[in-house]
Specification:
The structure is a single chain. The protein has about 475 residues and is α/β, with parallel strands linked by helices. The chain has four domains: about 70 residues, Immunoglobulin-like (Sandwich); about 70 residues, Immunoglobulins (Immunoglobulin-like); about 70 residues, Immunoglobulin-like (Sandwich), CATH 2.60.40.10; about 190 residues, TIM Barrel (Alpha-Beta Barrel). Strands 19, 20, 21, 24, 25 and 26 form a six-stranded parallel sheet that branches. A four-stranded mixed sheet has the order 2-6-5-4, with no helix packed on it. Strands 8-12-11-10 form a four-stranded mixed sheet, with no helix packed on it. The chain starts with a helix and ends in a 16-residue tail after the last strand.
Length: about 475
């Protein structure tokens, strides 16, 4: 009986083993013969910002044609460090490959050896320049260095990127005692009318041999803007080493004035006016005016400062210098009444450096009739035309335009035609003085000769000049 049972068990075990062997063999054969994509590695890396070929990661293709393999890399951002997946599709089968976008290249940079005032710890960014890397970087000192003693300090700075790659360099810092006082510029006298708001730092700038941002303090307690008179404002400028300098400037408060307009005279006069200068063409314009022995008016801005010496030349040759705002930036000057006058004061002070006084003749950018100002401040032109005259200025529009504002290098014939179209007794002719208006210079002789032949004289604006005021549209 026992023998029979043992024999039965052996048969069953043999059968089970046979089934297992067959199953393993079948499974092995299936995995060896089924369609498959075999990758070179279990995970791939991609250098940040670099293009890559996702199919190059496939080591072997089994059971598929190459053209059947579709690749989806939409999950991969090659411009950002991180872990992603690439999805491969062959027929209805999908395979995923883990990839990581990495940065393995260390940053490069240059160092700046510099002098530093005693007791001041420098910002690392002051010592590092020309950083180049594929990812964002941070800079720091390798150690906590002391700058409390005079002499040479050799410090190591480190630039590290987002991939944790680091580059070290030594920089030499010469620690010295700073005894030089900071200075101030732009302390011209303020001329304001009663109750006018004053920004005492307008146009004022500080300079120091070490400190890029010296502190400026203003004491204006003595100024009474509600009462006409001359007052003093006191300035103290300090650097981070404790060196100080003091300055004073005058604030001249005047009563509001009412400037009246002038009617045209009975004489035949042309007032040539040039906006937007000085420029590379100013000297050429002055040469033409000198050739015909006539005078003109220049409404200047602060946009051509390297030619500011020509403002002085024009003044010395008998021409009238007038103001056209410093920036000629509509968004800025027409944002508010105060913004306009701040800008006008700035150009006035600039001109004063050249000719010794602030002109009171002005022209609004775009003229008093402009509508673009409405975009920045509703009704501002209606306020400005009254306020400028209350503050002692007079504004001048025009009754004839050369048309040179319509584009750069407008044809000479068109400028001449536009400029000679009037028969008014008094002509205020608008033209422009910028680098792109060379044809305006070329047209001048024909314009001058035309009006001279008709018996006109040419003059610069004076207090007795007629004042063409256009209709205010804002």
């Amino acid at each position: 009986m026992k023998r029979k049972m043992k024999k039965k068990v052996k048969i069953i075990l043999s059968f089970i083993v046979g089934i297992i062997v067959v199953g393993v063999t079948a499974t092995t054969i299936y995995f060896l013969t089924r369609p498959n994509l075999i990758f070179d590695k279990g995970k791939e890396t991609i250098e940040i910002h670099q293009e890559f070929d996702a199919k190059s990661f496939i080591k072997e293709i089994k059971g598929y044609e190459k053209n059947e393999i579709k690749v989806d890399t939409s999950q991969v951002n090659k411009d950002k460090l991180g872990k992603y997946k690439i999805v491969y599709t062959a027929n209805e089968d999908q395979y995923e490959l883990d990839v990581e976008v990495v940065d393995t290249v260390a940053p490069t940079f240059d160092v700046v050896n510099k002098d530093l005032e005693l007791g001041i710890k420098p910002e690392v960014n002051e010592l590092v320049t020309n950083i180049k890397d594929q990812t964002k970087t941070k800079t720091y000192f390798k150690e906590d260095y002391s700058f409390d003693k005079q002499g040479l300090v050799k410090a190591v700075v480190i630039v590290e990127d987002e991939g944790k790659n680091k580059t070290e360099k030594e920089v030499q810092i010469n620690v010295v005692k700073d005894t030089e006082k900071p200075t101030l510029k732009g302390l011209d006298n303020f001329y304001v009318t009663v109750n006018h708001k004053v920004d005492y730092l307008e146009g004022v700038s500080a300079k120091d041999n070490f400190d890029a941002n010296p502190e400026i303090k203003v004491n204006s307690k003595e100024v009474n803007l509600s009462t006409p008179g001359t007052y003093e404002v006191y300035y103290t400028v300090s650097d981070r080493s404790g060196n100080k300098n003091t300055y004073t400037k005058k604030v001249i408060v005047k009563e509001k004035q009412t400037v009246t307009t002038k009617a045209p005279s009975g004489n035949k006069i042309v007032y040539l006016t040039f906006d937007d200068g000085p420029s590379g063409n100013t000297a050429k314009i002055l040469d033409v005016l000198a050739k015909y022995n006539i005078k003109a008016t220049f409404f200047v801005t602060g946009n051509g400062k390297k030619y500011n010496y020509l403002i002085k030349r024009a003044h010395n040759e008998g021409h009238t210098i007038a103001l056209h705002t410093y920036s000629h930036d509509y968004k800025k000057v027409y944002s508010s009444v105060d913004a306009y006058f701040d800008d006008l004061t700035r150009v006035g002070n600039m001109v004063k450096e050249q000719i010794g006084f602030v002109p009171k003749y002005i022209r609004f950018p775009g003229g008093a009739s402009n509508t673009i100002s409405r975009k920045y401040s509703q009704g501002i032109m209606s306020k400005l035309v009254t306020e400028v005259q209350a503050r002692g200025y007079q504004y001048y529009d025009w009754n004839v335009s050369s048309g040179d504002a319509s584009g750069n290098n407008v044809p000479v014939s068109k400028i001449v035609k536009n400029s000679t179209s009037s028969r008014s007794q008094n002509i205020m002719l608008l033209a422009h003085d910028t680098a792109a208006k060379s044809t305006t210079v070329e047209a001048l002789p024909q314009i001058i000769e035309h009006y001279q032949a008709l018996g006109y004289s040419f003059k610069g604006i004076t207090d007795s000049t007629f004042t063409p005021h256009q209709r205010v549209n804002n």
